[in-house]
Amino acid sequence: MVNSSTNKDNLIMKNKGPLIVHLIFWLFIVTLCLLAIINSKEPATSYEILVQFGYYGIINVSLFYINYTLLIPELIKSRKMYWWYILAITALILVMGLIKTVIASLNSDIMLTFTNQRTNKKEYIDITTYAIRTIFISGFFIVISSLLKFAVDWFANDRIQRNLESEKKDMELQFLKSQLNPHFLFNSLNNIYSLAYQKSDKTADAVLKLSEIMRYMIYESNDSWVSLSKEIEYVRSFIELQKLRFKDGAAVELTLNGEIDNQHIVPLILISFVENAFKHGVANDPTDPIRINIIANQKILHFSITNKKNKHNKDEVGGVGLNNVERRLQLLYPDRYKLNIVNSATHYTSELMLDI
């Protein structure tokens, strides 16, 4: 419900954006008109205000929005008919200029007169000069409406593109996560099956440990971020589950340093490295254990894991784990991580540094 409400509020704000821009523009035009009336040396009658600003205001607003809502969307955006658009704009300006000129000629004492500053006498403007002036004024409103239309559309398209990219990223992350959970479950169930097949007393403990791990994966890992301490506890639980596979337990050294508490991380980032070490490495050699080292401070998390390679590992299926986690790192920590993998003849080492 929270996400739905937030999306609705965002949509309302996005729809209000162009409206606010239009209001600002017309408030600016109205303010200029009011200043012209206030600064006029001769008080204007109501009829003069109606002719100068009412009739002409309707014409200019019509020019603006015929171009904004009809000509640009139909002739340029939809049909790409640029020459027809130029002809339509030219015709529109001429027709509106003619209407303005007719109104001016019918109200020549209002529209075609001005006071000469030197002689302080009222003089008439040539009708041709006035007609040319109206063409430039009409052109001004056409240019402004075109600039505003293209700017609003550009920002709208940019927002749509960013939303599509964000949705694509979210879908890919969900897909990667959906891969990770069955991948882990598949391997864990194989291990538990082996214990059950051997009628091991560890089977019940393995099922219980798996249920704890799955609870974390299904519920707590749905958040965008989890505390680092919970993620490490999850790694510990996974290690304990793996130890049940071996008669004498697994040989694992987990070292923690730095500030583990009050740090946060994207969930299920570290587990793939640990799972890979158990799946493809030697986990029961006390002289050469799996070594996991985690160092954290306020800015950097340093994670490294080294395992002895299992020369008899015939698993040709491979796993999605490391490819999965590397893609998640690219999406969730762009330019904020370094991953170094060393595959030597005897050992496999993964080293990850995260900006947290």
What tags apply to this protein structure?
356 residues; alpha+beta; Heat Shock Protein 90; 6-stranded mixed sheet; two-stranded antiparallel sheet; 9 helices; 10 strands; 63% helix; 15% strand; rod-shaped
Care to describe what's here?
With 356 residues, the protein is α+β, with helices and mostly antiparallel strands. It folds into 2 domains: 15-164, no CATH class; 200-355, Heat Shock Protein 90. Helices cover 63% and strands 15% of the residues. The strands form 3 sheets. Strands 4, 6, 7, 8, 9 and 10 form a 6-stranded mixed sheet that branches. Strands 1-2 form a two-stranded antiparallel ribbon. A two-stranded antiparallel sheet has the order 3-5. Helix 5 (127-197) packs antiparallel against helix 9.
Specify the CATH class of the largest domain.
Alpha Beta
The percentage of residues in β strands lies in 5-15%
Task: State the CATH superfamily name of the largest domain.
Answer: Histidine kinase-like ATPase, C-terminal domain
> H/E series, N to C?
HHHHEEHHEHEEHEEEHEE
Question: CATH topology of the largest domain, what is it called?
Answer: Heat Shock Protein 90
State the CATH architecture of the largest domain.
2-Layer Sandwich
Question: Structural class given helices, strands, pairing?
Answer: alpha+beta
Number of individual domains? 2
- Summarize the biggest pleated sheet: 6 strands, mixed
What does the average pLDDT come to? 80
Poorly predicted segments: 1-8
Number of helices: 9
Beta-strand segment tally: 10
Percent range for helical residues?
55-70%
Distance N terminus to C terminus? 29 Å
Rg, rounded, reads 37 Å
